[in-house]
Structures are given as C-alpha cells and as structure tokens.
Design goal:
The complex is a heterodimer of chains A (112) and B (114). Chain A has no helices and 11 strands. Helix content of chain A is 0%, strand content 53%. In chain A, the strands form 2 sheets. In chain A, strands 2, 4, 5, 9, 10 and 11 form a 6-stranded mixed sheet that branches. Chain A has a 5-stranded antiparallel sheet with strand order 1-3-8-7-6, with no helix packed on it. The model of chain A has no long low-confidence stretch (mean pLDDT 92). Chain B has strands at 4-7, 10-13, 19-25, 31-37, 43-50, 56-57, 68-72, 75-80, 89-96, 104-105, 109-113. In chain B, the strands form 2 sheets. In chain B, strands 2, 4, 5, 6, 9, 10 and 11 form a 7-stranded mixed sheet that branches. In chain B, strand 4 and strand 5 (43-50) form a beta hairpin. Chain B starts with a strand and ends with a strand. The mean pLDDT of chain B is 92. Classes of the chains: A mainly beta (112), B mainly beta (114).
Amino acid sequence: QKEVEQNSGPLSVPEGAIASLNCTYSDRVSQSFFWYRQYSGKSPELIMSIYSNGDKEDGRFTAQLNKASQYVSLLIRDSQPSDSATYLCAVNMRDGNNRLAFGKGNQVVVIP
Amino acid sequence: SAVISQKPSRDICQRGTSLTIQCQVDSQVTMMFWYRQQPGQSLTLIATANQGSEATYESGFVIDKFPISRPNLTFSTLTVSNMSPEDSSIYLCSGSPGRDYGYTFGSGTRLTVV
C-alpha cells in the first residue's frame, strides 16, 4: 500500500458547486495532515492543515480527518474558476526525518 | 509561514555539466527538503537536509549525483552533477520550522538538459 493515496481522477465541477477530494494514508501514527494547491507551472501552496479528528474550516475550504479510518478529505464550497488546480494531500511521516509523504494529486476543473 | 527564494528559476544545461540550485529562507527552519517533480506527476523526495549533519537521501538518489549543503538554518543548495537528459525536471526545495508544521516551497527550478 502506498503511503498516501489519492485515487480519484480529474474532477470537473460547475462554478458554485462543492468539490470533494479524498485521501487515505497508511501510517497509523501520523499526526499532521496537509492539503496543498498547485497551479500549473507553480510550486505547491499550503492551504489547509489538520491535526485532530473532525472538521476544520477556513473560508471556503473544509478539511475532514478520521484517524480511525486513516482518511482525510478536502471540501471546496462555492467553487470558483480560480480553484482550478491540482490538490495534493500530504501526511507527516513519523520517521526519523519527519518528511512529508505526498499523494499523486487530484486535478480539479471548475467550469464557469 | 516562511518565504523561500529559490534560484535559478530555470536553466538549460549541457549534458555532463553540473548545476547548483540555491534556496534562501527568510526565517530559520529546522528541516529542509529537496524534491523533484516531473510534469504532471507528484513530488518525489530526493533528500532531507538538516544543519550540522549529512543529508539523508531517499532510495534511488545518491550523494555523488545530488550533493547537498546546509551551512545554516536559512540556506541550502542542491547540485545536480554530471547531468543527463533524464535529469530534466522541476526541482523544489521546501522548509519547515517543525514536524507538525506544513512545509513552504520555493518557486522551483525548471531544468532542461540537452
């Protein structure tokens, strides 16, 4: 099993709708979880971090964490064309180097 | 969060030569990491660079090919040595003040080897 998995293919959503992205991880002891947004040709930008079970809201973004199920998700409400990007899930691996393991990313296209 | 300045932003290099990429952070960060990203792909960790110790390399990456320096808590370099076209990629540095903080990325270096 890969350390971080994002299995959904490209996601197309109409403007104003909710985009939902999912991510599973393999390390049961991971404590820190992050979502990054990456526009084409740009470097990843941290948009959400979550450490506790439940929901965390920041503007139009909501991260959801379920440690028992080893599952973290990202909801984008009222999707805008500017949200069109690749979203990367990242998990802090509790190994000696505290590195982040990244999923392969999900491309989101918001259709005006 | 920290701001990381990375340079060069892009370069075209001849095979067999070396390129050194620099990252300067505007604040002290405990951990710095170097990644490679192929177009349309996710991030692949090359190595972890901590001050005062040798870099730790991931499987498939070796120090002779990718030497790293970390002279202080705000600066690091990655050298891509003896380049071949297979080294063409985007190279990214990132830093974090601690294990539970998200990482900030530099703007990336787009390397093309001809």
